[in-house]
Design brief:
Largest sheet: 8 strands, mixed
Oligomer: single chain
Number of domains: 2
CATH class of the largest domain: Alpha Beta
CATH superfamily of the largest domain: Periplasmic binding protein-like II
Strand content: 15-25%
Order of helices and strands: HEHEHEHEEHEHEHEHEEHHHH
Number of helices: 12
């Protein structure tokens, strides 16, 4: 009897191990500590495991941000992650930061997460009123490896001042504190879409202002990087000290997958994550999820493809996905 019990127990272990091995394993890239992507993507991974755990195992991994995510999805180190359209464009074409990597055609896009804008801010009592006033000042461009860092550098280059500022690369967690303590003069980061929680919180005790580009500066940035769009950030009532709108650039954040992810997994991931009720739950934890959509219109000009299984999902939701951007491997 004891032998039979042992045999049954051993068989159960084998069945469980076999089931675990049978589940498709996928690694999700997130973001750096202190940024919005870290809690958002980890919450998404938890939901996917809760709903799809019998078929798939989604392992969340922190990352350095958009540049890191796009590179690692392109190489297959991450199976899926979010990335800024700028880095996605560069990876697809093997240009810019990805010139040494070479063009990668091993990924597809499955959803539009949201549009972000780039925010450049100073304390409200700062003498800095324009980009040209930043010459000789300490300007934080966020940590290297993040999409925000790339976008900040692009803005400073387009404005013609990158060689005349004292650059810092503090991370998300330290940037607002450093501005409040006057360790830096200028704060640059991605807004979602028009505010940054840490900056908004800082403004309660130390009011801040957004610095806008001139029309010429905005046009120069977009001419060099055609994946940006002109945006004017309206006055944000929650940001104390902001009294005027600010011209900036906007760009999409997309959800991407490596070719190793099965068609069925792509469909199932969206069927769970993009479900309206599930999105409400995710958005309550991390606001980044509330704008998830099948809006791929901007990809027509950039010629970056959408995964066929994702197109199938979104079309089932009544979204008109442009046929010219849907492509398999």
């Amino acid at each position: 009897m004891k032998f039979m019990s042992t045999l049954v127990a051993a068989a159960s272990v084998v069945v469980l191990a076999t089931s675990a091995q049978a589940a498709e394993q996928y690694r999700l890239g997130g973001g750096p500590a202190g940024g919005g992507w870290h809690p958002a993507v980890s919450a998404g991974a938890a939901l996917l495991n809760s709903e799809l755990g019998e078929k798939y195992n989604f392992n969340y991994s922190p990352s350095n941000g958009s540049v890191d995510n796009v590179r690692r999805v392109s190489l297959g180190d991450f199976d899926t992650a979010w990335g800024h359209v700028g880095q996605i464009f560069q990876s697809w074409n093997g240009v810019g930061l990805f010139e040494k990597d070479g063009a990668s055609k091993d990924f597809r896009l499955i959803a539009n997460v949201r549009q972000q804008t780039q925010i450049v801010a100073v304390l409200a009592d700062s003498p800095i009123k324009s980009f040209s006033d930043m010459k000789g000042k300490i300007v934080n461009l966020l940590n290297k490896g993040s999409g925000s860092n790339v976008n900040c550098r692009n803005i400073m280059e387009g404005s013609g001042i990158i060689s005349e500022i004292d650059v810092r690369n503090l991370g998300f967690s330290d940037s607002a504190r450093a501005l409040g303590d006057r360790q830096i003069d200028v704060y640059c980061s991605a807004g979602a879409p028009f505010t940054i929680p840490a900056l908004t919180q800082l403004s309660i005790t130390k009011p801040v202002r957004y610095i806008g580009m001139t029309d010429a500066e905005q046009a120069a940035v977009i001419e060099k990087s055609p994946f940006y769009a002109p945006v004017t950030i309206p006055v944000q009532p929650d940001v104390r000290g902001m009294t005027d709108p600010a011209k900036s650039i906007g760009y999409d954040v997309f959800w991407m997958v490596n070719k190793s992810v099965s068609d069925e997994a792509v469909f199932d991931m969206l069927n769970v994550a993009a479900d309206p009720e599930n999105l409400k739950k995710l958005a309550a934890t991390a606001g980044y999820w509330k704008t998830l959509s099948g809006n791929f219109e901007n990809l027509k000009a950039l010629k970056i493809p959408v995964h066929p299984a994702a197109a199938k999902y979104w079309e089932g939701r009544g979204v008109a996905v442009p046929a010219e951007v849907v492509r398999g491997y």
